[in-house]
């Protein structure tokens, strides 16, 4: 039986603490011959490209992060803003959906790995692509952060 290789796209949350583990996973998958298309904010690319151990199989695709009112100009990741502005980074990430859709239509990957882009499964289902949640934070943290008791109403 022949080994099957896959084309995998990756779209991590715009935070270096999320992007970095995705890069490590991309390298591990590439070790097995899988092709990776990795979406990363354009200005953040220079911070992670040196960690690409398989440039023949892992391709970084720079994403222009749209400006969202309330974000400093040029802000791309959570490193660029104080914690209270992190939701605006998510809003900016959500605004990339049309660009990500266009790339996915062109690339036609077998899978898309993501963590916080809640719209991605609906998009990939529409395109006939499987989506995989790759969560880089612990389940305890998720439970704490998403607990209804923490909501400020």
Question: What does the secondary structure layout of this molecule look like, with pairings?
Answer:
Elements: E1 7-11, H1 16-31, E2 35-41, H2 45-48, E3 58-63, H3 86-94, H4 97-107, E4 111-114, H5 120-127, E5 130-133, H6 139-146
Parallel strand pairs: 1-2, 1-4, 2-3, 4-5
Helix pairs in contact: 4-5
Your description of this structure?
Belongs to the UDP-glycosyltransferase family. GO terms for molecular function: UDP-glucosyltransferase activity. InterPro entries: UDP-glycosyltransf_plant. The chain has a single domain (7-150), classed as Rossmann fold (3-Layer(aba) Sandwich). It is globular, with a radius of gyration of 16 Å. With 153 residues, it is an alpha/beta fold. The chain has six helices and five strands. The relative contact order is 0.18. Helix 4 runs parallel beside helix 5 (120-127). Strands 3-2-1-4-5 form a five-stranded parallel β-sheet, sandwiched between helices.
Give a brief rundown of this model.
This protein has 153 residues and is α/β, with parallel strands linked by helices.
Question: Which key phrases capture this entry?
Answer:
UDP-glycosyltransf_plant, 17% strand, alpha/beta, Rossmann fold, 6 helices, 5 strands
Query: Number of folding domains?
Result: 1
The fold-level CATH name is Rossmann fold
Number of E strands: 5
Biggest β-sheet strands, sense, barrel: 5 strands, parallel
Distance between the termini: 57 Å
SSE pattern: EHEHEHHEHEH
Q: CATH superfamily assignment?
A: Glycogen Phosphorylase B
Q: How would you classify the helix and strand content by structural class?
A: alpha/beta
Percentage of residues in DSSP E strands: 15-25%
Strand order of the main beta sheet, please?
3-2-1-4-5
CATH class: Alpha Beta
Cα gyration radius (Å): 16 Å
Q: What is the overall shape?
A: globular
> Which range best describes the helical content: under 10%, 10-25%, 25-40%, 40-55%, 55-70% or over 70%?
25-40%
Mean pLDDT, to the nearest integer, reads 93
Which runs of at least 5 residues are low in confidence (pLDDT < 50)?
none
User: What is the count of DSSP helices, taking H or I runs of 4+ residues?
Assistant: 6
CATH architecture descriptor text: 3-Layer(aba) Sandwich
